[in-house]
Each structure stands twice: as C-alpha cells, then as structure tokens.
Amino acid sequence: MLLEIWPNSGSLxxxxxxxxxxxxxxxxxxxxxxxxxxxxxxxxxxxxxxxxVYPDYKGKPNEDDLVPVRSILTKIKGDLNVVTPDLIGKxxxxxxxxxxxxxxxxxxxxxxxTQAALGLKHGGHERVLSKDGYLKIDKAxxxxxxxxxxxxxxxxxxxxxxxPDNLVTLGKDKFEKGESVCCAYNTSSPIVKLNSLIxxxxxxxxxxLRYFEKDNIIVSDCYAYEDGIIQYVEDSDGNIQVKxxxxxxxxxxxxxxxxxxxxxxxxxxxxxxxxxxxxxxISELGTNLNDIYLIFRxxxxxxxxxxxxxxxxxxxxxxxxxxIEMLFNGLTRIVYDPxxxxxxxxxxxxxxxxxxxxxxxxxxxxxxFSNRVxxxxxxxxxxxxxxxxxxxxxxLLLNNKLDxxxx
Length: 407
Hints:
Blueprint: H1 2-5, H2 12-20, E1 24-25, E2 36-39, E3 66-69, E4 82-83, H3 101-118, E5 128-129, E6 134-136, E7 141-146, E8 149-154, E9 157-162, E10 167-169, E11 174-175, E12 180-184, E13 187-188, H4 192-201, E14 219-220, E15 228-234, E16 240-244, E17 247-249, E18 264-265, E19 275-276, H5 278-285, H6 289-304, H7 306-311, H8 321-331, E20 332-336, E21 343-348, H9 350-356, H10 361-367, H11 370-379, H12 388-405
Parallel strand pairs: 1-4, 14-19
Antiparallel strand pairs: 2-3, 5-13, 6-12, 7-8, 7-11, 8-9, 10-12, 15-16, 15-18, 16-17, 20-21
C-alpha cells in the first residue's frame, strides 16, 4: 500500500531503510550503558543499567511511571552501530550475529505504522477535517466568544481558552459532557497522519500522487516541558502569550489549546494541536536527551497509534520501544565528551540530512545526489565502510566479477 502511494525514490519506506541500514546485531553486552527512561509497562524483557531484566508488567499502563533501560540511544562506548542483546527485549531474541537488525527494524516500522498513518478512504482525493483541532471538555457547558477568547460556562465557574483564528463553531451554545464544542478548522488529505510523520522526520515528500501538497502541516510548541499552571495573557498589541510555570511557549493562532487558563499541566502533556518542532524542543531542553526523546516518542505514537490517542497509552502489541529508540538515534547527532561521558552537542537532523551526512560511500550514493557524494569522495569525506549497504553492493560487484572470470 505504501509503495502505491509513494512510488518513486522518495518513498518513506526507502528513506527509513537507508537511515537504519548501518545497525548490525552482535553478541555481547554494553555494561557501561547509562540507560534511557521509558514507561514501566513497556519495559518487560528489557535490561536495566545494572543488568537485571524487568519482568512482564501486570498493572494498569501508566505513561508517567518511568524506569531506566539499556538502549542503543544511550550507547556511548565501542561501535555505536552494534546492537547487543541487552539493548533489545524479548520480542527480538531470534537475531543471529551479523544480522542487519537496522533493516529489520525499518521494515517493522513501516509495516506497523503506514496503515494507521494512511487512513485512506478507497484511495480517494477528498479533503477531510483534522480532528486533533477539536475542543472537548468533560462537563456540560455554555459556549460564547469574547474577543480573543473562548469562554465556557460550567457548573462552578467559567473556563477560558485562546480563540484560534480559524475557529469554526457548531451553531449552538449549549453542549453536553464530552461533546465537541468547536474546532480549529484545518482541512487535509486522507493521509494527513502520514504527511505529518514525514514532516516530523524531515523526510523527502514523494512526487507520487502529490498528496503532500494537499496538507498544510501545522507545527506547534505542543508539549509541556515541566509541571505547572498554564496561563494565557493578551498583551497590549493583542498577541497571546502562553506560559506554564516560568517557561513561555510559542503561541500558534491556528491551533486549538486543550487546557483552560489556570489549569494544572503535567510534564509531557499535549497542550495544543499541531506537530511538534523538534528543533525548538532541543533549544528549550538543551542536552536533556531523555526528555527530548520522550516528547518525540509521544508525538510518534500520536501520529501512528489511534489507541494511544484515545486511551493515553500504547498497547504491548504496538510499535516496539526499541524500534522508536533506533529511529530517533538515526535522526539525531549526539556528541559525547570522552572525559565525562556527558553530551556536548545534540542535533535533530531528520532523515535526509542524517543519511547524507553518513561516511558510507555506497549508502549516500544509493540514496541519491550522486554529484554531491562524488565530490565528498574526492575530498576524502566518505569511505567504503562495513555497513549493510556496502556489504550488499560489494557482494554483488564481487559475484559479478567472479561470474565473468568463470565464463
């Protein structure tokens, strides 16, 4: 299905394969792994930094209950492309030494997310309404507009939300508990989730059927970086400022904000609609790798897992945590201080920049931009490495040479 929608060299499947092709599975153990925090309910079978293996979780899933696990994302010693058994869980114990675990994860990633992300309706080109811009509350209310604000009168008081510029109302002012009250109007193609994933990963959109052109992906500062009380303030110029605790957030007038003024917000809560800007997240959180990753993880599941959006947690059978960790590792550049083992630099590069920055001649050449890679090769910036792509291509070339000699 994915290749029918993205038929040319810019397909997301192909790009993810190039992004992860350098990861190889080998026996061993990473005893110096500092560990990554993930929800406990998803840590069954994973190895803690002290070497103990977490049992299967039996309680109620809770995204806020985090535990440390060894991860490819927090590996800082040795060959960073080598994945050892202690960095993955019980779902991936059938790999043999030398296996191309990166390509296997890439295949699992695209197979597991494209159907959920596509949301196609018989392949049609119709426009659909983006539902993440809806405002719902868990109380009966009376709706009214007041300048830059949405005011919802409820039992015991009144709730105040910013009024988006693209607000659409339903033609009535009284609503029952759980009803959609209004929305920030953004129409899109049936595959807006997939296009949002492309935007998040900074992959190349396909020329294909040009679905990407039908979507105006709204980027926003949509996750809370810390606990606090949310405040909306209109300044003297009529601009709205958003604060949670002492931290200010970029306001987007095309987004729907989900929390009323004065509400308590928890760290990592999604405060408005839109797709997160990972560059801005890093500018706010610096080298706090774990918090940056958890925000990426939440955005990924929001785009690919309908159950996560509805229930607030992902099922055990959904995309495995190790795959998302490897994906994020491939999308970022992390530089550690060799003396302190602390992060010196952290950059979110995205799919295209990450692949084109590789040192593997055959990986970059096969991905595209042949003139660019030839120029880099002449400068000595790329080499023939030991990644999977190089092994495959050299194997084909050598076999061809042997065949010619045997004629």
